[in-house]
């Protein structure tokens, strides 16, 4: 029995955590500390905070992976969720490892917008597209993150003659097409943008740089 208890403890999953980007939500964990734990299989359950019964996640029942997609199970974005994982090896089951509480609306990370640029002779036109959630409208198109939050676009310009880190904010607001004017012909400019949420004072990461020479 003692050996079984030792094995149970040594294969128990560690660091069970939700990771979420634009409501694409996955559960991650690390294997137990035993060397043989890398051969363990894992079983995932989830529930809404306050519910008494745990639900099995069928696609993550007896898997060797250390990640489980719970996007569909956490689609009520205002609800707080828990998940838990246990491991099995050689007929021995570990106890459950519990995640922290996770509320998608509060905790998902908002990604950067998609940016495309076109240039005139003294101006750059910037087209912005908000990141999209995994959730779909009845007609099948995915719902943008701007439906769930009051989000602003922030557009920054980098003059490549200056140093890379010198980003100047040239626009903040909700317009999807922004014109940056009074630029110098023959100079290389780069544009980056991010999403900003005033209510929680959160910013996304910067978008990929889009560069152009006027």
From TrEMBL:
Q: State the superkingdom.
A: Eukaryota
Question: Is Transferase there in the keyword field?
Answer: no
Is Disulfide bond tagged as a keyword?
Answer: yes
Keyword terms, alphabetized: Disulfide bond, Receptor, Repeat, Secreted, Signal
Q: Where is the Fibronectin type-III domain?
A: 6-96
Please list the residue ranges annotated as the Interferon/interleukin receptor domain: 108-212
GO MF term (any one): cytokine receptor activity
Q: Where in the cell is it found?
A: Secreted
**Cited Pfam families:** Interfer-bind, Tissue_fac
Per the record, its GO cellular-component terms are:
extracellular region; plasma membrane
Q: Which family does it belong to?
A: Belongs to the type II cytokine receptor family.
Q: What does this protein do?
A: Receptor for IL22. Binds to IL22, prevents interaction with the functional IL-22R complex and blocks the activity of IL22 (in vitro). May play an important role as an IL22 antagonist in the regulation of inflammatory responses.
The name of this protein is Interleukin-22 receptor subunit alpha-2
Q: Which organism is it from?
A: Sylvia atricapilla
> Which gene underlies this protein?
Il22ra2
């Amino acid at each position: 029995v003692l050996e079984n208890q030792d094995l149970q403890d040594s294969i128990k999953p560690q660091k069970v955590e939700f990771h979420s980007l634009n409501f694409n939500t996955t559960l991650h964990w690390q294997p137990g500390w035993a060397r043989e734990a890398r051969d363990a299989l894992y079983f995932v359950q989830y529930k809404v905070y306050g519910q008494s019964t745990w639900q099995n996640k069928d696609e993550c029942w007896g898997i060797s992976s250390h990640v489980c997609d719970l996007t569909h199970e956490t689609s009520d974005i205002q609800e707080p969720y828990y998940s838990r994982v246990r491991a099995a090896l050689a007929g021995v089951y570990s106890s459950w490892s519990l995640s922290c509480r996770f509320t998608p609306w509060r905790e998902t990370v908002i990604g950067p917008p998609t940016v495309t640029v076109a240039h005139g002779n003294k101006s750059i036109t910037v087209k912005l597209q908000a990141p999209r959630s995994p959730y779909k409208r009845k007609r099948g198109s995915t719902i943008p993150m701007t439906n769930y939050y009051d989000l602003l676009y922030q557009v920054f310009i980098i003059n490549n003659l200056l140093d890379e880190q010198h980003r100047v904010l040239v626009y903040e607001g909700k317009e999807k097409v922004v014109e940056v004017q009074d630029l110098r012909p023959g100079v290389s400019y780069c544009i980056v943008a991010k999403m900003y949420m005033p209510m929680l004072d959160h910013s996304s990461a910067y978008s990929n740089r889009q560069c152009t020479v006027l």
